[in-house]
Specification:
By secondary structure, this protein is of the alpha+beta class. It contains seven helices and 30 strands. The chain has a six-stranded mixed beta barrel with strand order 3-4-11-5-10-9. Strands 17-16-23-24 form a four-stranded antiparallel sheet, covered by helices on one side. The chain has a four-stranded antiparallel sheet with strand order 20-21-26-25, with no helix packed on it. It starts with a helix and ends in a 5-residue tail after the last strand. The structure holds 2-acetamido-2-deoxy-beta-D-glucopyranose (9 copies).
Length: 470
């Protein structure tokens, strides 16, 4: 009797302990409460400075068949040698502004009219509107390597083509010459696919035309080609734009891969092969490499946490997400309802800095400044208004910033998504405010760095897993 009583007691104790433990796990991120208990990032200041050399470390993914190396186009890992000079931060923030205006116009149901007026109000001639990360793919037979930007906000994949009837810019790779490829074919103007490319014909040949937010444009033949991702991963009859007349600044990249959700995008064209699933990791700095992977191939999916993907509006080609909250050092910001504005939120590969509603940005900045109160401040630059000079420090303790997405997904940002280096003595809080609380929230690539970001487009969900690049 005594034995069974004590075993009941023990079991009760165990249940109680388990309950306490589960409560702690379930409420992780919300009830850390006690400031300082959460892992803020203490790092040597020297580690915040970028290395002049490229270091590659993606051996973890050598089992993936359809994987491309992702590099920052302005860094030492980039094959675009003439783009190595980094943009200055003013230029990056200007580019973000024009990108976000473009997104806003695209998300609207009257995109064409808006597009023109948005473009007309741009502050300055911006740099390219479509991102800073590039991958190298092969096109044609024999295969020619082309280094392309990748963009989750674009649908048509294009590259510059000879003979460049209009104008071409100087790209790093030789310009693709369709007449020297045995697998190239024009798409006929009467093809049903031609309607998707959307702008008419050159004689009997389908014409495509894209206009970006800063009035840069790409016009040419809509065609099919063999696309080579790796020796074993080849896509026949891939529909792409063979550009004959470009305007705008795309650096020295050869063009762009469109990873949006529209039916002529890479994702839709390869749906049978890759199940509308892709993932990428953007590296923590321009001195290391990440990846872009198609399909679920070779991934230990257990560490990926998924939040629902939504469409902001019927015609939007962007990936919509729901951001529920932000915590600084484990303390949730006191902001009304969700972070997502009435216009919703999207995740974008081509915007650098996350654009928050002004009231949310302001609450984040207040909490961040409080945690950084003991550091020397540095001058503001452009829209970065919370900057620090660490040149007298040997280490720096950066508060943790956690984003909570719908579906119970909490992610603790990498340090590279919290502080943005402007100069060696000027590190700034890496967020920006939209002009109004009603503007669409854009979750940018700085805050995605080092995560494996998985787009399960067929399953309508978006996943995050930490340590995606290493
Ligand atoms: C970068 O590479 C050069 C040449 O290999 C080497 O001399 C230098 O020490 C490296 N710098 C760093 C910071 O690793
Ligand atoms: C950064 O770029 C802006 C805009 O192009 C320019 O006005 C400014 O002088 C540049 N700053 C530096 C430090 O190069
Ligand atoms: C466009 O959007 C507005 C507001 O979101 C809505 O009231 C209107 O009905 C929409 N128009 C069309 C044609 O979808
Ligand atoms: C973009 O094109 C429109 C219409 O052609 C023009 O009114 C506007 O000034 C242009 N904007 C820029 C930034 O070039
Ligand atoms: C190329 O596009 C520009 C506008 O971006 C236009 O003025 C020019 O006529 C075009 N050239 C050809 C050959 O179509
Ligand atoms: C493009 O490259 C050619 C040859 O390398 C050079 O002559 C030309 O000036 C370059 N154009 C620009 C705009 O850089
Ligand atoms: C594709 O169409 C263009 C315009 O009609 C033509 O000049 C070109 O020769 C065609 N290419 C092929 C391979 O049919
Ligand atoms: C493209 O998408 C539209 C609208 O979603 C659909 O009506 C059409 O059938 C699709 N076309 C193809 C070729 O998949
Ligand atoms: C700032 O320094 C003071 C004095 O050393 C210390 O008491 C305080 O906790 C520090 N504040 C933060 C946010 O680290």
């Amino acid at each position: 009797m005594e034995g069974s009583l004590s075993s009941v007691f023990n079991r009760a104790l165990l249940v109680l302990l388990l309950h306490v433990l589960m409560t702690c796990i379930v409420h992780q991120g919300y009830t850390y409460g006690v400031e300082g208990k959460i892992a803020s990032h203490t790092v040597p200041v020297s580690s915040l400075l970028p290395s002049p050399n490229c270091s590659t470390s993606t051996t973890k993914y050598s089992n993936r068949k359809s994987i491309l190396k992702v590099v920052h186009r302005h860094g030492p890992c980039s094959p675009l040698v003439r783009d190595h000079n980094p943009l200055n931060v003013t230029e990056i923030l200007l580019r973000d502004q024009s990108r976000v205006k473009w997104i806003r116009s695209q998300s609207s149901n009257s995109s064409y009219g808006l597009k023109a007026s948005v473009a007309a109000s741009l502050p300055a001639k911006p740099d390219i509107t479509d991102g800073e990360y590039v991958v190298t793919i092969g096109l044609g037979t024999p295969k020619k390597d082309l280094t392309l930007l990748f963009d989750t906000g674009s649908s048509i994949t294009w590259t510059q083509c000879k003979p460049c009837m209009g104008s071409c810019y100087n790209q790093s790779d030789p310009i693709f010459n369709p007449s020297q490829s045995s697998s190239y074919a024009n798409i006929s103007c009467s093809s049903t696919f031609c309607a998707l490319a959307g702008s008419g014909c050159f004689g009997s040949t389908c014409k495509y035309s894209i206009t970006y937010g800063d009035n840069s444009s790409s016009v040419g033949f809509f065609a099919t080609e063999k696309l080579t991702i790796s020796p074993t991963e080849v896509i026949d009859n891939f529909k792409f734009g063979c550009d004959e007349n470009i305007s705008g600044n795309f650096g020295t990249a050869a063009g762009l891969i469109g990873l949006s959700d529209k039916n002529i995008s890479f994702v839709e064209q390869t749906a049978a092969k890759y199940g509308k699933y892709f993932s990428y990791c953007m590296p923590s700095s321009a001195s290391s490499t990440g990846h872009l992977t198609f399909g679920k191939d070779g991934r230990a999916l257990s560490s990926v946490r998924f939040t629902p993907l939504s469409k902001i509006q019927q015609h939007s080609e962007f990936y919509g997400i729901t951001i529920l909250g932000i915590s600084v050092n484990g303390v949730p910001l006191s902001i009304p309802s969700t972070v997502s504005s009435s216009a919703g939120a999207i995740i974008d590969s081509g915007t650098t800095i996350t654009q928050l509603p002004p009231t949310v940005y302001s609450a984040l900045r207040t909490a961040f400044r409080k945690a950084m109160v003991n550091y020397t401040t540095a001058p503001a630059v452009s829209t970065f208004d919370t900057c620090y000079d660490f040149s007298k420090e040997s280490t720096v303790t950066v508060p943790s910033i956690k984003f909570s997405f719908a579906g119970g997904v909490d992610i603790d940002l990498d340090r590279s998504g919290i502080l943005y280096m402007v100069t060696a003595s000027q590190f700034c809080l890496a967020f920006a405010a939209n002009s109004a609380d009603s503007d669409v929230v854009v979750y940018g690539n700085a805050q995605q760095r080092t995560f494996e970001v998985a787009y399960d487009v067929a399953g309508r969900k978006l996943g995050f897993a930490p340590n995606g690049c290493s």
